[in-house]
Amino acid sequence: MTRPAGPVVDCRGVSRVFGRGATEVVAVDDVTCQVGAGQRVALTGESGSGKSTLLHLLAGLDAPTTGTVDWPALMVRDGRPQGVGVVFQAPSLVPALDVTDNVALPLLLAGVAEPVARERALRALTDLELLELAPAFPDELSGGQGQRVVIARVLAGAPALVLADEPTGQLDHRTGGHVLDVLLHAVAELGAALVVSTHDPSVAERLPDRWAMTDGHLLNAAAGAALR
Question: How far apart are CA 51 and CA 94, in angstroms?
């Protein structure tokens, strides 16, 4: 799949503050970073270091208190970037919908015709070897199966940027490794950029670029090296 050259997301001097006065928390503090097309980044740090907040800013799910977040290679509509897929720590599937409808749902919400949305959903499930789960409901899936279905949902939308927030955090080591295999395969097929937040060194070592967060700060030289 042909992707535009250049950065897919560009953060400049970004901070995100929650609360005021005595309750103020600086979750992300003066972060400057850039994710290039096709780049693979592991975002490491302890719980509470600001990883999830930074991912939400990169996805356009939250707005910075100060600084700017831009998506130079993506279409932006009503302040939100198009072409961004997010994998959360929990599977986040709709219980009342079967697997096919869960994968098709974001496409339908984006205005894609139902037959086309279902065809793309089934193709994504086939590509990830999940077609046998198509008629199942979320409560019939294991944790690993649920996360793989979420990755199929992302794949069906053909994003240019995939952001995964601790996608293996609730899984045992073997299942988590398989989910990561599926995720890496999916983004390779898409030619998408990928940022995975994790506190697991075995996950981080699977990605070539590694950034580290501590107390809201993006510390390591790799973050600066990404500015190209």
Answer: 25
Q: Cα–Cα–Cα angle for 64, 66, 71, nearest 5°? A: 50
Element (H, E) at 44: strand 40-44
Angle between helices 143-156 and 114-127 (to 10 degrees): 130
- Rounded to whole angstroms, how far apart are CA atoms 219 and 49? 11
Q: Which residue has the tokens 């199966």?
A: 145
Could you please state the CATH topology (level 3) that the domain comprising 38-60+74-210 is classified under.
Rossmann fold (3.40.50)
38 and 3 Cβ atoms separated by less than 8 Å: yes
CA terminus-to-terminus distance, the chain: 23
Q: What is the mean pLDDT of residues 146-172?
A: 90
Q: What is the pLDDT of residues 5-55, one digit of tens each?
A: 679 999 999 999 999 888 999 999 999 999 999 999 999 998 889 999 999
Domain residue limits, the chain:
38-60+74-210
Residues paired with 212 in a beta bridge: 44
Question: What counts of helices (H) and strands (E) characterise the chain?
Answer: 7, 11
